[in-house]
Design goal:
mainly beta
């Protein structure tokens, strides 16, 4: 068949148009597909397991187990009713010493300057226990009791909340005397050292305060979740346990901004948050152990049951007040590996 000039032009034009249409089809993104890909997937729910499913490496019988602290070569437990501080040797997992500390020990003890510092709700104040003689060598009186009697050690000093109005006192351990004061938000109730700063929560103000320990000056006040009751520093951030809304707030110490609110559920009257061994850990009454992955900012495991509210990381282990008469020692890797039966 003979094709004339005009017909050739039509055929060539049709072919070019067809190729252009095919190319456009390959280059045009599938918006529907992208929309589905870009949608944020909901976080997977945490594993919910009975606390009894955990297998402790050791169970230490301690009557009246209260607050916990890992100090140097020991773990210490307070007994509020008996007015004592009890030493556990992590090498043997045995109680090796019981010391009369004073009236109604409460709150977490701290260690430093050759001493164990124990909050006393019955005084109120703080007892200094010499770790060599195991005797109380000094007592500091304050005007605040209960769980708000919080302490921290850092930059060669003991830091102590001394009243309910937010007065923070700095004590020289050589004289046991206050050498400076800073004034924080009212209702300040917990302290922690880390990232070159001292951090304090205010339960009534829903705040986290950053203090420069070199100048004793408030650097920043940061809004966090409702009614924070505990604070920890580690795993690259500052973390507050918020009793009022059952959350954990993550604060970036580089920007002094709250970056995440992690939902836990209801938190009882007691609760503690700590960091270490690659995780953020929470213990509360009715939920003795919660593990948060600091990389994903998600709750990955929740262990429910009796006990809880006191927790510390030390000597490569978790130490939990599993009941009023027992402290459990648990390998963090064992916790991570625990799955439903």
């Amino acid at each position: 068949m003979q094709v004339h000039g005009n017909q050739r032009l039509c055929l060539v034009g049709s072919a070019i148009l067809a190729l252009a249409t095919i190319g456009h089809a390959w280059q045009t993104p599938d918006r529907t597909s992208n929309q589905k890909t870009d949608e944020k997937k909901p976080a997977p729910p945490p594993l919910r397991l009975p606390f009894a499913s955990l297998k402790p490496d050791a169970v230490v019988d301690v009557a009246g187990a209260g607050a916990l602290a890992a100090v140097d070569d020991a773990v210490w437990v307070t007994n509020r009713a008996a007015g004592t501080a009890i030493r556990i040797d992590p090498k043997t997992n045995k109680v090796t010493q019981t010391i009369a500390a004073g009236q109604a020990p409460c709150g977490s003890p701290v260690g430093g300057f050759g001493s164990l510092w124990v909050s006393l709700c019955g005084l109120p104040g703080v007892a200094r226990v010499d770790l060599t003689s195991h005797l109380v060598t000094a007592t500091i009186k304050t005007n605040v009791g209960g769980e708000s009697q919080s302490m921290a050690i850092g930059v060669g000093s003991l830091w102590l909340l001394t009243d309910g109005n937010g007065t923070l006192a700095r004590f020289d351990p050589t004289t046991n005397a206050a050498v400076a004061e800073a004034y924080l938000a009212g209702g300040s109730n917990a302290l922690a050292f880390g990232q070159g700063a001292l951090w304090a929560t205010s339960g009534s103000g829903n705040l986290l305060t950053r203090i420069d320990p070199n100048t004793n000056v408030v650097v920043e006040t940061i809004a966090v979740g409702k009614a924070p009751r505990a604070v920890a520093v580690g795993e690259g951030a500052v973390w507050t346990l918020n009793q009022g809304d059952g959350t954990v707030s993550r604060v970036d110490p580089k920007t002094n901004k709250t970056t995440d609110a992690i939902a836990l559920g209801p938190i009882g009257a007691r609760g503690e948050i700590v960091t270490g061994e690659g995780s953020v850990w929470v213990s509360a009454a009715g939920t003795p152990l919660i593990r948060i992955d600091p990389r994903t900012k998600l709750v990955v495991q929740q262990f429910t049951g009796t006990g809880g509210g006191a927790l510390v990381v030390g000597h490569g282990s978790l130490w939990i007040a599993a009941s009023a008469t027992a402290v459990w020692r648990i390998d963090p890797k064992r916790v991570e590996a625990t799955r439903p039966q």
